[in-house]
Amino acid sequence: MGRQHQRQRRGPCRQADPGCRPDHGRGRPVSDTLAWRLGHLQETLVRENAQAPGLFGEIARMEGLLAETYRDRVPYELLQNSDDAGSHTVEITHRADGSFVWRNDGRELNAADIEALCRSASSTKQRGDSIGYRGIGFKSLAAVATRIDVRSGNIGFAFDRDRAAALLGGVPVGSVPLIRIPTDIRDEEPQPGVAFTVTRSATGTAFGTIDPIAALFLRHVGRIVTTSESGSDTLRIVRDAEPGAPPGDGGSVALHGDSGEARFAVLRHGTATVAVPLDSRAVALAGVRGRLACFLPLQDEIGLPVVVSGDLLTDPSRTHAVVADASTRQVLRDAATAIAEQLSTPGAPTFDRLWELLLDGEDIRSALLAATDTAAKVLLSALREAMASRRLPFSYSTLVLEPEDVPVLFPQGAPAALYTARNRASARAIKATLGLTTFDFNALLAGPDVPKVSAPLQTRLTEHLTELAKMHGRRLSEAERRFVESAAGPATEEPTKEAPAAVVERTPPRAPSRGEPLSEVLTRWRAAEEAARQYLNARGWDLRDVSTQNVGYDLEGTQPDGTPVRLEVKKVDRPDARFAMTNNEMSLMLGTPGGYYLAIVVGDGRYAKLVLLDPSREGLTRERVCRRWDWEFTDWARFALPVE
């Protein structure tokens, strides 16, 4: 009997592990089966413990520390592993007994993969060819599990401390790592991908729905299904990479979930990928101050409402980037370059959208003033440098421009959002921070051909030139005088004096009827608070105006059914516009749930609408804006109820 046969007799089916059975029950193990190789690995690991008796105890303690650090990252680490395996679908099933099953349809485990799971910080993946390569992700399960049963292809095995302690013979269970020795090795009916059945420990907390941001930078997974006793939630990821797209344009990603759709444009430059929110739902996911990701989301903000991802260095918890590391700084610099390229190029895929986000976001100067280097400070500093090195075909205007004026003054293109009355304050901050030049109206007027601008801009420019001349104690220049005279129009004869008109007493506007549209009400009461009060009172409400009393709301009274109600009135231009609540308003809302609502007037003219929103609704996104000490709402429109 040769050495090979003797080895087979000493193969994986040892008495100490009754869960291991011969290949397909035929009474003899076969050396070329995966079950046999796992049995051999089991023997090797048992011998290692015998040769270094204290080794497993040290590994168990390290595993405990690592697991505690990774406790909140378990679903993201498993999602990362599933994507690296080429999975298209991930299914997570939460069972009534507290256990859960994680299943994917990716590549099946081979012997090298399984050995990597058993070894500390070992992986068959290489840096750059996958999201995760450190061999840590699967071991995060030690934070929540007492047993992990694994099935992949035609093999099944488990990680179980009690069974492993029995194999080691007399070693205390507390000194045995959970994820070290494979037990219960068995052949299974073939199945695609990998499935983990996790028996949760007493301290292992359940995790809820995965943050959709985690799906943005996945390469393969297109569907994540989470099922529990309360129902099922499906997140679909639709990637659209345009063939032949210009450099840097990475197409788009749409996240379709039960709570709505979020669309992102994707930019790429060097080591960085940037996801730009294209709708209010996407902005709510990214946050007012944005997110940093190492493919999967971190807890670092970047100062802009975008999501930046790259292969950067994180701390041991995988929740924060190490900003001092060269790889992290390179990702942030590359992201800044990608953003600057779009901001400086009219007609670029996200040119207008990025300017809108930049002007709608927080004042980026606050992040630049941070005492220490943060991800936001590094990225924004790099963005400022990148913008300063570019020659822009547009500039900052001290005057508000009408939409039709923008292409007249900047024929090569300019972001319309930079010149609106709504964005005046943020435009000044952006001008100072990014070093935008100021448009010279005097040079424009001194030219041979003064372009025809809108009547509102003519009025503003006339007032500006007159005020400027008074401020400097000078007369209008010849060019300025010509413009002011042309804006005033041709001189007309002095009208003949007429007898004084009879004094007409003003009568208060009539109360609206029940069926009268909001647009008509707004023509008689321009103040949003009074228009909302009149509109609702015509529909059976009984409201009075208390806006001058500084009580934290504008209207109080009763609903048509007699229920007491308090209303804070907000006015926005469109359903995806942001609005804010002060701390006073927020504390009142939390103290009177169900009796406090926001009455939001959306738009003007014939399409104006009034909607009611309960600000305490579960799932409604609101963010604390520290520089203003208020709360900002973004993705609110889907929670609001229209008042017909």
Outline, from the CA principal axes? globular
How much strand content do the residues show?
A: 15-25%
Instruction: Quickly give the CATH architecture of the largest domain.
Output: 2-Layer Sandwich
Structural class, from secondary structure content?
A: alpha+beta
CATH class of the largest domain: Alpha Beta
Outline the low-pLDDT stretches: 1-31, 122-134, 501-506
List the total number of helices: 19
- In percent, how helical is the residue content? 25-40%
Q: Quick one: biggest sheet?
A: 12 strands, mixed
Mean pLDDT: 82
Report on the architecture of this protein.
The protein has 644 residues and is an alpha+beta fold. It has 4 domains: 3-208, 2-Layer Sandwich (Heat Shock Protein 90), CATH 3.30.565; 228-389, no CATH class; 391-470, no CATH class; 518-642, 3-Layer(aba) Sandwich (Trna Endonuclease, Chain: A, domain 1). It is 31% helix and 22% strand. It has 19 helices and 21 strands. It has helices spanning 3-9, 34-51, 55-70, 74-84, 111-118, 161-168, 280-286, 326-343, 351-360, 365-368, 375-388, 405-409, 424-434, 441-446, 455-471, 478-488, 518-524, 528-537, 583-591; strands spanning 89-94, 100-104, 145-160, 182-200, 223-228, 231-240, 249-257, 260-269, 272-277, 291-294, 296-297, 307-310, 542-545, 555-558, 564-572, 579-582, 596-602, 609-613, 622-625, 630-633, 641-642. The strands form 3 sheets. A 12-stranded mixed β-sheet has the order 3-4-2-1-5-6-7-8-9-12-10-11. α17 (518-524) crosses α18 (528-537). The radius of gyration is 33 Å and the shape is globular. It starts with a helix and ends with a strand. Mean pLDDT is 82; it is low at 1-31, 122-134 and 501-506.
